[in-house]
Design brief:
About 40% of the residues lie in helices and about 20% in strands. It is α+β, with helices and mostly antiparallel strands and about 90 residues long.
């Protein structure tokens, strides 16, 4: 079972282009070239750790497999790699 620190997840997502929503700090939205996209995820307030179930849910929300999401947080998956993955799934950011 995988467990990630909430702080590390939020900071990792921010490094990759996610920003807190203006209306709700539990909601992180992906931005490309300072433009908001339709890709987002929620971060639970409950615990300081994110368990396996929530990691899977967050990965689905940001359009990745669980192992890709963990790589996105821990930095092996770069912002450019993430954009390539999204484009391969049919997302267009122009």
């Amino acid at each position: 079972m995988t467990v990630l620190k909430k702080r590390e997840v939020v900071n990792g997502l921010k490094r990759k282009g996610f920003s807190p929503s203006e209306s709700d700090h539990k909601h992180l939205v992906f931005h490309v070239n300072s433009k908001k996209t339709s890709i987002f995820t929620f971060v639970s307030h409950g615990s300081n750790e994110i368990d396996d179930y929530l990691i899977n849910r967050m990965a689905i929300q940001v359009k990745l497999e669980k192992n890709q999401f963990i790589d996105l947080i821990n930095c092996p998956l770069t912002n450019e790699d993430y954009l390539k993955e999204l484009k391969s799934q049919g997302y267009c950011f122009t």
